[in-house]
Amino acid sequence: MILIQSIRSSILLLLTIVLLKIDVKGFHPYLAECGDVKPRQELYYPDYNIYHNYKTTKELIITLADNFKDYIRLDLSYVSRLGEPQLLVRVTNFTHLKKQNITNYWRNDSSKKRVKLLISSGEHARELIPTESVIFLLTNITNGLKHSGDKRPMDNAAYRFSHYILTYVDLFIIVMLNPDGRKYAERTRNYCWRGTSTGVDLNRNFEWQFGGSGSSSNKEDEEYRGPHSFSEPECNVLLDLTSQYEFDAFFSLHAGIKHIYVPYSDSMSQKIGRKPANIKEQLKLASIMAKSSASKFTYGHAYDLNDYAADGTVFDYMAGKRNIPFSFAIELWGNGDNSNKRCFDLFNPHSQDLKAALESIYPIFVAGLTSLIQKKLQRNQNKHLFDAKLNLYDNSLQVHSQMSGMIDQVNQEEQNFNFKIKNVLLSASSNTALERKNPDFVDWVKLGLAKIYYCLPAKFF
Ligand SMILES: [Zn+2]
User: For residue 73, how far is its CA from the centre of ligand 1 (angstroms)?
Assistant: First the structure.
């Protein structure tokens, strides 16, 4: 009897557990999948007649670079693990190099007076809007330029904007940092996929608190950091560029919420309250950028705005290791996660809303660029003042040196003079015949010479 009761109880318990689990899954079918990158039934998918996929992105960038050779240079040599180009473009006014017959645009870094900004987009496969936003930016920058065969009447505002940016900015954009991940998401329609072809989250793969609790060693996890720092070949383009050029600013573009993060985001910084030395300036720029959009953007320390830390991020590395003065992670779109969200809708607007979203994001770039330009101009002006002071100092050193020469000469002449006087005094004092003939005259001469001798100007040094 007891045995039968126990079996009944066990069966009931088992049934309850099974039913509860089904119930939980029914109530929240995605709860069990939080944090992983398995596909989910999406609320909506991208319409690739409106969104760019990797192929059309590449075609568009190649066309832009072909149309505006004097302003956009494309480098296809940086590739992903599977050999897909990451579409690195450099945007500035190259015409002065052309005039000088300098053909190696990439190695020439003569434009130190321009703002050097590096933008990294397409880091996370499921976030399409960062790449759309840089395409929108490039389209606007080139909107005021004419290419051969272009019959458009030139709009003055567009012309002025294009030339303003191209004159004062040296802009590097990695249009698609993670092409393999993007192509995987497009092919499988798994818009929860975030990592590379091996599932590594590039934004946890950098050598800044790598391996900390704000990342994962689990390959199934969306924050999988990889076997070691920089394990992914996709990192190379960022490492190379930041070792070759001295950037004024770095923007790492993402989506999911509307936040602008200043460093740092890692668990150690959160623990010890670490901040960059120029935190006030960084927050000021973040504030200007956040306020420029019609949408509400929040800005601040990454570890203050989020309830999680992130270790091994690109923007922390650029701030902490590469010492780039302004290094932001910018979340361009979204309202944060909640139980109704799937994946694509968490990170990207519906295709019909894409244009409006891009128009609300665009002022953030413009505000960032114009503020950085003003800072650079101010710094250059200060540098001119500094150079002028340096020239004055050099001149004063020259004067000093000339004066020293003159003083040496005076000293030499003084010595010669003293020597002569001493001789005169000596001969006068020994000239007993003259003394005998006119003793008053000899005293007068002695006194006069002694006065001259002792009343020479005081030394300068
Ligand atoms: Zn992201």
Answer: 26
Q: What is the DSSP letter of 216?
A: B
Tell the burial category of 295 from Cβ atoms under 10 Å away from its Cβ (0-12, 13-18, 19+).
middle
Dihedral sign, Cα of residue 142, residue 148, residue 151, residue 153: positive
Ligand 1 midpoint to CA 178 (Å) = 11
Confidence band, pLDDT 50/70/90 cuts, at residue 74: very high
Task: Give the start-end residues of each E strand in 138-236.
Answer: 169-174
Q: Quick one: angle between helices 54-67 and 129-142, nearest 10?
A: 20
Residues pairing with 307 in the sheet: none
* Residue 94 and residue 212 in contact, taking contact as beta carbons nearer than 8 Å: no
Catalytic residue among 222, 223, 331, 359: 331
Q: Average of pLDDT values for 83-98?
A: 91
Rounded Cα gap, residues 393 and 401, in angstroms: 12
Going from the Cα of 367 to the center of ligand 1, the distance in angstroms, rounded, reads 22
Judge whether 331 counts as a catalytic residue. yes
pLDDT per residue as tens digits for the range 141-190 = 999 987 767 777 676 788 899 999 999 999 999 999 999 999 999 999 99
**Per-residue pLDDT at 458 exceeds 50:** no
How many angstroms separate the alpha carbon of residue 290 from the centre of ligand 1?
Answer: 18
Task: Write down the residue that tokens 């049934």 correspond to.
Answer: 15
Distance 245 CA to ligand 1 centre (A): 25
Distance 126 CA to ligand 1 centre (A): 8
Q: Yes or no: say if 123 and 252 are a contact pair by the CB < 8 Å rule.
A: yes
How confident is the model over 269-297, as a mean pLDDT? 97
DSSP per residue, 311-350: -S-HHHHHHHTS--SEEEEEE-S-----TT--SHHHHS--
Structural contact between residues 215 and 223, judged by C-beta atoms closer than 8 angstroms: yes
Cα–Cα distance for residue pair 260/328, rounded to 1 Å: 7
